[in-house]
Amino acid sequence: MTLSKHVYVVDDDSMVRSSTAYFLDSSGYVARMWNSGQAFLDDMPGLSPGCVLLDVRMPQIDGLQVIELMHDRLAQFPVIIMTGHGDIATAVQAMKLGASDFHEKPFDEATLIATLERLFAALDRQVEADDQRADAAQRLKQLTRREVDILQGLAEGLPNKVLAYRLGLSVRTVEMHRSNMMNHLGVRSLPEALRLAFLAGVVSLDAGDTGDA
């Protein structure tokens, strides 16, 4: 999938905000602006994933504090810190807190676009992976408890006879549940079923040998 390229500009300097927004809009991005870190944090829960151009020197809540308060949202909102000339120490601190990159003001437009494109490509992959995990989880919800038991056993590499013994079932019943499990998942092979199980977190990647039985 391809995301709309939202860029969120957070800077207390109105001239920087307006000039940056004009440059971003004319370069094909969808720019929105905030004049404080707190205002951006307040609105962030309702925003689509996108890149954040974040000024590091702001009153009340500075850029470093904003990054800390974003916590686990950094994957959906990669941050590019905007610093003053020579403020390398602050930029390094921001990177340690989770910022993806930094640019000195006034930034080079071509370099900034290259950074944005790199981050949007990574963000696109992240969103696609999230969608795949959500789809896998939804499919796994169609399984009965017994079918989940069968899937977990298959992920451990257990043959049908061993699964039957473990679950107190006949081999024929295990084969029936296995067939129903595949139908409910909408897959035609065991590797496909295991891939969905791994994505949904039903089984771990170190569950064991996944050879078919």
Layout of SSEs?
Elements (H helix, E strand, L loop, with lengths): L5 E5 L3 H13 L3 E5 L2 H7 L7 E5 L7 H8 L8 E5 L4 H10 L3 E4 L4 H32 L4 H11 L4 H8 L3 H15 L4 H11 L13
Parallel strand pairs: 1-2, 1-3, 3-4, 4-5
Helix pairs in contact: 3-4, 5-9, 6-8, 6-9, 7-8
Organism: Glacieibacterium arshaanense
Keywords: DNA-binding, Phosphoprotein, Transcription, Transcription regulation, Two-component regulatory system
GO biological process, one term: regulation of DNA-templated transcription
Strand content: 5-15%
Can you identify the CATH class of the largest domain? Alpha Beta
Quantity of strands, as a count: 5
Structure annotation, total helices: 9
Instruction: Domain count, please report it.
Output: 2
**What is the helix content?**
40-55%
What is the global morphology? elongated
Distance between the termini: 36 Å
Q: Let me know the largest β-sheet.
A: 5 strands, parallel
Name the CATH superfamily classification of the largest domain: Response regulator
CATH third-tier fold name of the largest domain: Rossmann fold
Q: Taking Cα atoms only, what radius of gyration do you get, to the nearest Å?
A: 24 Å
What is the residue-mean pLDDT, rounded to a whole number?
88
Q: Detail the poorly predicted runs.
A: 205-213
What series of H and E elements makes up the topology? EHEHEHEHEHHHHH
Specify the structural class.
Answer: alpha/beta
Strand arrangement, major sheet: 2-1-3-4-5
**What is the name of the CATH architecture of the largest domain?**
3-Layer(aba) Sandwich
Pfam families: GerE, Response_reg
Keywords: DNA-binding, Phosphoprotein, Transcription, Transcription regulation, Two-component regulatory system
Protein name: Response regulator
Organism: Glacieibacterium arshaanense
